[in-house]
Design brief:
The protein is of the alpha/beta class. It folds into 2 domains: 2-95, NAD(P)-binding Rossmann-like Domain (Rossmann fold); 96-127, no CATH class. 43% of the residues lie in helices and 15% in strands. It has helices at residues 10-21, 33-41, 50-56, 72-79, 97-111, 117-124; strands at residues 2-6, 25-29, 45-46, 62-65, 88-91. It has a 5-stranded parallel beta sheet, sandwiched between helices.
């Protein structure tokens, strides 16, 4: 299996080490060139940019984000145009769950060609989801 890992802090780097120990191939990128070089010495394939990481992955790609919560949106914005249908993006960062919901709703509406996301989100908020407290007879 081949995985692209973006974000090589404590958690991302340790995940790469475990994947490499399991004989998986990892293509890695981080803002810190030193972090990339250290993992390249451990048999990971280093990338100099997000675009370089995507280029080095076989399709369909699996890209795992392990970046700080504040960097998730910008990283996805940089990465998304480089991915193809069938590629997988895993957000493994410590972001607030509401941000994950917002991203999922945006992806759902924009993938249908409905560009006015804010209007659609407000429309969707009028619905209540869940079950009834009473059992049906």
């Amino acid at each position: 299996m081949q995985v692209g890992m973006i974000g090589l802090g404590r958690m991302g780097a340790n995940m790469v080490h475990r994947l490499l120990a399991g004989n998986h191939q990892c293509v890695v990128f981080d803002r810190s060139a030193k972090a990339v070089q250290e993992l390249a010495r451990a048999r990971a394939v280093g990338a100099s940019s997000i675009a370089d990481l995507v280029k080095k992955l076989e399709t369909p790609r699996a890209v795992w984000l392990m970046v700080p919560a504040a960097a998730v949106d910008a990283t996805i914005d940089d990465l998304a145009p480089l991915l193809s249908p069938g590629d997988i993006l895993i957000d493994g960062g410590n972001s607030y769950y509401v941000d994950d919901i917002r991203r999922a709703l945006y992806g759902r509406f924009s993938s249908r060609g409905e560009a006015d996301f804010a209007d659609k989100l407000l429309s969707a908020m009028r619905f209540e989801f869940g079950g009834h407290l009473e059992k049906s007879s």
